[in-house]
Amino acid sequence: MKFISTRGDAPVLSFEEVVLAGLANDGGLYVPETLPKFDTIEIASWATLSYQELVFKIIHPFVDGEVCDDDLKVIIDKAYQDFRHEDIAPLHQLDEKLWVLELFHGPTLAFKDFALQFLGHLLDYFLQKRQQRVVIIGATSGDTGSAAIEGCKRCENIDIFILHPHERVSDVQRRQMTTVLADNVFNIAVEGNFDDCQNMVKASFADQSFLTDGRQLVAVNSINWARIMAQIVYYFYAALKLGVLNRGGQSQKEIAFSVPTGNFGDIFAGYLANKMGLPIERLIIATNQNDILHRCISQNDHSKKPLEHTLSPSMDIMVSSNFERLLFDLYEHDGTEIQRLISDLQEGEMLLSEAALATAKELFESFSLQDKEMLEVIAQEFDRSGYVLDPHTAIGAAAAKHYQSSMVDTKSVTTVCLATAHPAKFPDAVEKAGEFLPDSRIPEPELPKHMHDLFDREERFQILENDLSVIHQYIAKELGV
Ligand SMILES: *Cc1c(COP(=O)(O)O)cnc(C)c1O
Fold first, then answer.
1. Does residue 392 line the site of ligand 1, with CB under 6 A?
2. Fewer CB atoms inside 10 A, N or C side of the chain?
3. How many angstroms separate the alpha carbon of residue 131 from the centre of ligand 1?
4. What DSSP state is assigned to residue 162?
């Protein structure tokens, strides 16, 4: 399979090359030139497959012979071996028409494990074959860093450096990163904020000369195509579990997904699932107060606003980088148009054409939720059923409820809210939600067994000045280059 840049002006890459590539050198993101398409009879025949078997079916056409089938199966098995639920992505029913898809049973308790466990093993496989060692540098405000570290800690051909803003990530999030004591894992606490970390990572990619032995940097943020690809699978999995197709491939019920959205990676995977043949009635973009996507879909206002810090921090973004991948489709693969839109956005605002917006609205719907309503949803659900939603999932659940009550006719759509994190990662929000209940209490969600001793484990990290040359010297020293 061939991969092309959304800005139309970068080399065409193979699957292996795209896994190792970050941004395209024209500044764009890589996407497949054409998508594989499955008919509904074939999709229906997958209803009884295990999660891992389904991963193989869906990923196989993208890999297109660049990894042999047996090796691909081994990579997939390794990727999901550390998940603590045998269904990998179990469904939990909230009410007659609303389900949550629990994507938090991986090692770091957030959905990012689905992609980063897979990516770590895939990278290691290609690097082994090439006899090459690479360096991963990433910035994190919380979830990505720990998922990337867990995904790479056993990789023999990768050294990973994760920058987090010193004293600005939660204790659980920091400890999930800093208690991994593998020799190839380096945590840097930068005396600055998340933007400082991210800017230093960007600058490192732009000028890699500090790696004097010519080693290459690899990106593991959600611009990496392999991450998006791995996330397509659970849309198929959930739909099949809920019986949307009968054995003849005919539609049995309509399904919608509500997706707590930040960078638009997770929900874009749902869009791809639909394009690949899975019948989806609606994809609901659930955002917090950082609502650029909601403003875009509902009123064609895609303008940058200052970042707001909310109780769902993993969705706090000003601009969603993966939205460019959708735009590329909406503009029928016209890279020049995308260049124009992005340069408008850099000035502050981009305006979608009527046609592009209308096409987006055929599938996408959007809602923006305030912290208060999110907390009320956590409280209500706990009060009703004892189930505790994490703050990101609660945004998705609230959006799903708005969507369901907006339907005028009696036709109702089974809605699946993606549960992107385990509530134990965000105890402060859960505690605040308790204040909405008469006895003002929701018991603190417990960390799963494998993390019970998280707060007793030894931590290892380096606090460094907010200065690119200091960071580069540290990296070079640790790598011995
Ligand atoms: C990363 C993250 C999101 C947002 O996902 P995107 O792919 O960036 O849209 C939502 N919830 C949690 C818990 C996350 O970690």
1. yes
2. C
3. 33
4. E
d(CA 110, CA 435): 25
CA of 305 to the centre of ligand 1 (A): 19
Q: What is the DSSP letter of 450?
A: G
pLDDT at 409: 66
Strand partners, 100: 92, 417
Q: Is the CB of 425 under 6 A from ligand 1?
A: no
The C-alpha angle 289, 435, 96, rounded to 5 degrees, equals 70
Q: How many domains does the chain have?
A: 1
Pocket test for ligand 1, best of 264, 392, 393, 426 (most atoms within 8 A of CB): 392
- CATH number, domain of 247, equals 3.40.50.1100
Beta bridge partners of 32: 3
Query: Shortest CA distance to 104 belongs to which of 120, 83, 125, 130?
Result: 83
Rg (CA), the chain: 21
CA distance 161 to 121: 17
Closest CA to 281 of 248, 244, 250: 244
* This prediction's pTM: 0.96
Write the residue with the smallest CA distance to atom 8 of ligand 1: 263
Instruction: Kindly give, in sequence order, each residue whose CB lies less than 8 Å from that of residue 338, ignoring residues fewer than 6 positions away.
Output: 6, 7, 8, 28, 324, 327, 328, 331
Q: Domain of residue 302: give its range.
A: 91-106+227-434
Give per-residue pLDDT as tens, 276-332. 999 999 999 999 999 999 999 999 999 999 989 999 999 998 999 999 999 999 999
Average pLDDT over residues 218-233: 92
373 domain residue, yes or no: yes
CA angle 148, 175, 134 (to 5 degrees): 30
Residue 190 lies inside a defined structural domain of this protein: no
Kindly give the distance from the C-alpha atom of residue 476 to the centroid of ligand 1, in angstroms, as a whole number: 31
Residue nearest to atom 1 of ligand 1 (CA): 314
Backbone angles phi, psi at 218, to 5 degrees: -125, 140
H or E stretch including 102? strand 98-102
Query: From the CB of 265, is ligand 1 less than 6 Å away?
Result: yes
How far, rounded to the nearest angstrom, does the alpha carbon of residue 307 sit from its chain's CA centroid? 19
Residue 112 is among the residues annotated as catalytic for this protein? yes
Q: Is residue 100 part of a domain?
A: yes
- 150, 194, 234, 263: which to mutate for ligand 1, most atoms within 8 A of CB? 263
Is-contact 84 59, C-beta < 8 A? no
In a domain, 212, yes or no: no
Q: Give yes or no for residue 420 CB within 6 A of ligand 1.
A: yes
